[in-house]
Amino acid sequence: MKFTFLAISCFAMAMEAVGQNYDADSIHYTPIPKPKLKKKKAGKDQYQSSKKIEYFFNLQMGSLVGCNDCGKGKELTFTAATVHGITIGKKLRTGIGMGFDSYQNWQALPVYGLISWDLIGNKNKNAVFLQMAYGWAHPWFVRDGAYSSYTSDPFLGVAGGRMINPQIGYRLKYYNIKMSITIGYKYQRIFYGYNTCPTCARPESTIENITQDLNRVRLTMSVGWK
What we know:
Layout: H1 2-28, H2 44-49, E1 53-66, E2 75-88, E3 92-103, E4 106-120, E5 127-141, E6 155-174, E7 177-195, E8 207-225
Antiparallel strand pairs: 1-2, 1-8, 2-3, 3-4, 4-5, 5-6, 6-7, 7-8
């Protein structure tokens, strides 16, 4: 009887010890729940802004306001151009352009490099930007108006010079389509010779070499891709 009581007591003590160890272990290994972090979905704008370099192009049309002979008043003539280039980052654009400019009797095909910087906004938003174009143009003379009766060009050795065109503009974004309006100053230099005495015995000795600067206010509207 004593042996039975002793055995039951030992068994009860052993079960109590096991229970205590189990409780201690269960407290020690209880996992701590981690807060759930919400994953941000990459939207379309985030995807676009991650691209460092993108291709763009635009077509420009507008007017040149100024005069060759300001004593006769101001002239309103036509200008057009296309630009192809790349956007670097969110604000910088650079490219190459080619266009057509009319200065009444003088016409020109400019070829130029262009760089622009967004002052307000960027490529994914509407923006105010500064733009600078620098290049060269091939000019020619059109026998029109007072020169329409001429059977040949009155000027000799016509050649083009540098072209400078700083502008400021505002660009609107609609998905990947961009529209903008700009205003700026356009400077174009041309060279030619004029024979002051074509009936003289030696007409080549009476040729006067002339450098002429064509200065205009340039107003344009453009539409393009990205």
